[in-house]
Amino acid sequence: MALYTVITGDIIGSRKYEGFNKLIREKLSKIVYPENMIAPFKLSRGDEIQALFKGYLAFPGFIRQVRYILRPMELRLGIGYGKINEVNEITKISDSWTLNGPAFHYARESLEAIDNSDQFKTRFMSNNEIDEAINTILFLIDTIQEEWTEAQWEAVYYYEKLGTYKKAAEILKIAPQNVNKRCKTARWKEIEHAEKSISRLVEKFIE
Residue 36's domain is classified under what CATH number? Predict the structure, then answer.
């Protein structure tokens, strides 16, 4: 049976944003999804979002994009990886909140674990022993990103998206060396290495 990735997110302090529902929908519409997306993020339960992907998703890089696009909103994110209950025409599902199964339960358990902790902002669950190692790396990534300035978020986002400091600099209207400096200060190379390490762990021990 196929495996799926579920991302369930809780928007922290949603009540402080005027016109929250309209604002969050506008932000969610800007997210760029990978080809294995089955259901995009949809808002439910007031301030929760959820998306579904077929197979494994290189989720650390994807959720970094989501965090940037949704700024200044902050997110707690639970990621579940596993089976889902069988449904007909799975590729045509548009709303993941109508589905169920282990992957959804793992994402929910991960999110609830974050709610009970003041340390984590991202947790992963697949019911495998390697989950603890993956969550340790996620914790270190969250700790570094917690210190990022708006300028560093922008530099990392556009550098990764466009591929060169020069192209990112043209968008940000700054010198290429300043994009480089911001990425270095954000510890981008270390973050990128950590994100790739998570994908390697999943591919080797879970898939």
Answer: 3.30.70.270
